[in-house]
Design a protein that fits this description.
The protein has a domain of about 80 residues: hypothetical protein PF0899 fold. The protein is about 25% helix and about 30% strand. Helix 2 links the parallel strand 1 and strand 2. The longest helix has 18 residues. About 20% of the residues are buried. The protein binds zinc ion (ZN).
Length: about 120
C-alpha cells in the first residue's frame, strides 16, 4: 500500500522533530495537508497511521488530514477556480470562458506535514 510508505516517512519526521525536545517528549497530534491530486487517500492514511503507531512510541497521537481541493488556472483567460467535477481532473470547464482544456494546476498536488504538537 502506497500510504504505508507515506506514513513511514511521516513517522521518521515525527521522530526527528520530537528528538529535538529531549527525552520524555511525545508527539500528541499531527496534521497533514493532503492535496486532491497527491495520490494519497485520507482514509487510507488514517488507517495506515492507526496500524503503524499501535503499540509504538507514537501510540495515541492524533492524526488530522486536511484535504486541499484542486485549484486550476484557466489556460485561456487565467481565471482560477476549483472544479466541482469528480473524479478530480484537470479537464474541466472554466466558469468564466467555458474552456475545457489547457488549465494549469495551482494547488492540490501537495502532501506535507502542516503541524506537529509535541509535549515536552
Ligand atoms: Zn477561462
Amino acid at each position: 500500500m502506497h500510504e504505508a510508505s507515506l506514513v513511514a516517512s511521516l513517522l521518521a519526521i515525527m521522530r526527528e522533530e520530537r528528538d529535538k525536545y529531549g527525552p520524555g517528549a511525545r508527539v500528541s497530534a499531527v496534521t497533514l495537508c493532503c492535496g486532491a491530486l497527491s495520490n494519497a487517500l485520507p482514509e487510507a492514511l488514517a488507517t495506515a497511521f492507526a496500524v503503524m503507531t499501535r503499540d509504538t512510541e507514537f501510540a495515541g497521537a492524533e492524526l488530522t488530514v486536511d484535504e486541499e481541493p484542486l485549484r486550476l488556472a484557466c489556460g485561456a483567460c487565467g481565471e482560477e477556480f476549483s472544479p466541482e467535477a469528480f473524479p478530480v481532473s484537470p479537464v474541466a470547464p472554466c466558469p468564466r470562458c467555458g474552456e475545457d482544456f489547457g488549465h494549469r494546476v495551482t494547488a492540490g498536488r501537495e502532501l506535507y506535514v502542516r503541524r506537529l504538537t509535541i509535549e515536552p
